Request: fold
Amino acid sequence: MTSGTYFKMMFYISHFFILSLSIYKKDAEFRNPLLIRYFCLFLEQRIYINVDSKHHTVDIQSHNYFFGFMKRILKLFLLFFLLSNTLSVNAKQRLRTISSPKKISKIIGGNSLADYWLMDKDKNILHFQNDQWISYPIKRLVSGFEIRKILPIYVEKDRIIILSTDIDWETHISEINNGKIIHYTYIAPYPLLQLTKISDALYISGNFGLLIKLENNQCNRLPSPIQSHINVTELDPEGILWIGTDGEGLYSWDGTKFTSYTNGNNKDINNSIITDIKYSDNYLFFRTINGEIYRLFNKKIERVNINKSPFPIEVPLVSNGHYNIFSKDGKTLSFPTAYKIKSYQELDDGQFLLLTQNLDLLYNQEYSGNFFLNYASIFGIEGPEFTFNGFQFSSIHYENQLYNKIIPSIILSDFNKDDYSDILLFNISGYRHPYLYLNNTRNYFTNFTDPLGLNQLSFNGFYSYAFDLNGDEKPEIISSNYKNGNYEINIYTKTAEQYQLSFSFQIPKKYANRPQQQVCISDIDTDGDPDLALVFGYSQSGKGNILFLINNGYGKFKPIENSNTDLFKGWNTKIIFADFNNDGLDDMYVVRNWNFNVINFKTKERGWRQSELNTNILQHQQRKGEAIVFDFDNDGDLDIFSLGESPLIRVLENDGHGNFINITKKIGLDNLNTGKIGETINSGDFDNNGYIDLFISISSEGKLTNYIYLNDSARIFVDESEKLGISDSKLKFAAIGDIDKDGDLDIYGFKKGRNVLWRNNLNNNNFLRIKLSGIKSNSQGLGAKIWIYENKHLNDSNYLVGYRQIGSQLTGLNYQNENIAHFGLNSEKKYDILVKFKAGRTISLKSISSGKTLHITEAKAPLSWWYTWDNYAYILLNNKVFLSYLFTALIGFLIILFTILIGRKRFNWDISLTSSVLAVNTILFIILLSALTTSKPFIKYYIPIGIIFFSSAGSLVFFYLIKSSHNLKSKTEKELELFQSLLNFTHGAWALSNLNSLQLYFENLSLEDMSNEEYYLPFLERKKTFTELTIPILNQIISLNKSLKYNQTLTRDLENYKYQILHIVNQDFGLINSVSKDKIYLAIIKLRDALSKLKYDVFASHSCIPKKITENLLNELKPTLSKENIKINIISFLSEEDNVLIDSQELTSIIDNCVQNSVKAMRHTKDKQLSIKLLKSDPRVFIEIIDNGCGVPNEKFNVIFENGYSTNNSTGYGLFYCKETLSKYGGRITLKESVPNRKTRFTIELQNGYKN
Reply:
């Protein structure tokens, strides 16, 4: 945290602390707006509610907000601070409907719910008093003119004022007082808009400065100096009326005169438009239309900071779809935005009346308990409308008429691994089109159906569920289907962010005479992965059966035949796997039509022992529906709750050993057995009292009714549907989970029309949520058991407060609950927890507090890797998208590798260049693969390959062009370049020396020295010079020689010797033996010999005889020299066979340039003499040119060789050319001495040449 952030936070906290102290002031009217304003400022929400603080009415305009992470945390802290220190503890609020004679358009005001005033949509005034409605028709209130607008204003009990504006904008005043209608004869010339009471007088103000005093049934117009509209009025404790105008600033009326308040020449104040006035703490505050706030004290106006203002600037929508309403006494009331409140008003006794956009009238009711409110529309998860009327089958397919009963499925599961429950909903249409609503952790949902590819899938069956079947911790979608006369079960896996069909199994005909009724997911063979049990009610033999599909661990299934096929025959509708006799093995509870329900107990030999639940317990000789099992009495065993036709419900209590007794009547549920039909049953601890409750949907005479029976400490189940607010809904079925993750269980249910999200507002810390992750067991912890004990009483059944087996409450025929174990606990206590996974591992936790979610993993890394690596490998290798990416990547990297091989072989790329090409192309390829993941296959696979191909090819083309441009040079240029390379190699300070040092090193290296580390460092130094400096120039010499085709034999020899040396030098020093030592020694000698031969051939073509050159030149210059009277003297110590290393033409040009300079220098000399000396001093040849001209000053000896320097208006290029040309051949030119008119000597220094 930066210091600025810290101080800013402390600033807000200190102001909230000051605000909390203000609660003790008597001026409650000041406290409330100030508290609202601070709360709004801190949250910085963009949801506005216009507040009329005088009449306590509110009009909600719009809302759109955003929470930042830090603001979210600080908001919770500050909200807690305010509620605990400033506001009184508020009870929960429920909204109840008031039945009125007509639709209401405006709440006028009132004293209490027994006495209030309204205006209906026909502008009639309604007064509710003494439990009856009194109507005042508009015709009695207004007569003789046409109304443009009517404004009723509440004054006090039994009295309202009605301001009626006609089409001429004149206002008529009338009054209802104690049941009597009073019409005033005075007609205001302009509209009147507001009213302020002072003692027994009413001051009514409006447009164009109009101010009316109504007293003793008389209306008097006051002599107002105000010309603009009056926007607002306010009364101070001294009885002075303060007036805010629309452009003339602030005025007051003391009963006798008007006073204008200005601030010098400040036009912003004097001509301001005032929107609010408030008297507080002996100050008068007013606010302008620009939001600026001023304070008047002792007749002086000063601008004040917004944090000193009492005005409630904005009232926010707090969060999660709630309106905040602030009462006069500082209470905060919250109502869901689903009610679409248009306006509200607080009555004199603190009660609120609220008007919805549908013109329904509501009132608030305090309620201390929890209840459910429908948030589906707020969260955007009502889902599509119910549209399906059943499939049309021909008569020969009569058995398929069961599909006319298809209803959708609701699945609560975490599809994006953010620990919030998402909702997968299957619509009813020609095919079941799924809708996936992802919970974005702020309890608002986004429809992700299209991005995940679900809109491309069709579902056509009795059920759908979502479980992780392949161990990748992402749920697969399991659904039955009917297609082309066949029944099948399909599994859809999320691959590359798209759901795709990964497994399909066609049901054998002997099972599939009718559709499968249900599928149960459990680890049937106890191998650590979930298997499938398909439930059939009908088959070819009449009775249905159960078919097991065994998982291979990777989400692929294989059917296994039961050894005792008659055991599972029956009119089966549902099965539940759970341990009913506490022997550690999961048994199978089977719900059957037309017969007894049964439990198939699992034996240690992996067989089944069937037990009929028949002794007057569940002898349902009719159709049955749902069933659910859980520990309702917290005694550590699973009890059974089942629905049927008659009787509707039966409850079987388990004694812990798999023996059951009927306790339906004992626990108060037998009152449901009155000819009703059970639709669905579900369970959860809705009130967090530690005991699991029931949600039941019942059909009676074609009507659906929903019930919540709360478990009263296992003594009795009590119908609390009315109190919990769910009795009026008509849900076919529902899934249960803590959708908003606030610690209480919510209900999401299917309803024809629009679905319902009943959000529980319990919101206490009396809970503990436990999420299990299996490693050796299945990933979702199916079959695992959880026991919770009071602290320090682990494994003591007398202190058991909760028991769950994961999976026993998870699924119904058309729903899947959240797969997190929810426990209601006492928040003031701590608990010990015992978890036993299906594979046998036991984990215990001690002294755990409530009010949190625990994530318990069966095993942690690295042990978890051992159990899961094969799953992930299998998934990847069977993932078409992954394989496509892998194939794409291989092709791409092969292209890059091929490019590098060509580059190194054809264009002699070194390590640095190779690394650069590899890095650039690899990075480009990875970026393309990453950026195009959501594109179509052609784009995300072929485009990266195409771009990387052209990028790699571009590198080769670039170097090919360079090589081609090199080959386009003239033969003369190439010869000169080869000459220069050889000259640099043989006359440089490092190349030939490096070869010589390597030769001497290996020539003198003994076998004993090879094992001595002392000799290793010199080797590395010579090796580095050879590879980084010598090899590049050798490659250049070889390449040029190839191009010029001087001597191809020499070219091959040079390449051969070069590679021999490189091969040995690049070996590890310790691997060099006497043979390789001799090889490299001889290879260096041969390489030098080959270079010498090549050098001789090349240098000979660039050599000439200086004596002949000089003589020929002077013969040509003889006429010029004679004309200038110059005496020429040639002194030569060279023979006719002495050569120098330079082209003859270039040497001629150099000598000619020097002679011409001498001629110019001697123009003013009387006795002109020019001498040319040719001297030899191996390995050099010197040519001296001496004259007695004007000479060169000493300070100019070096300057004269610079390009452009001249003393006689020439180009200044001659001596510069001489210097540059000689340097190419390893020569140079210098000015040795210069004495004016006596002796100036230039010396040309050349290397010995070679005979051609």
The first helix runs from residue 3 to 21. The two ends are 84 Å apart (CA to CA).
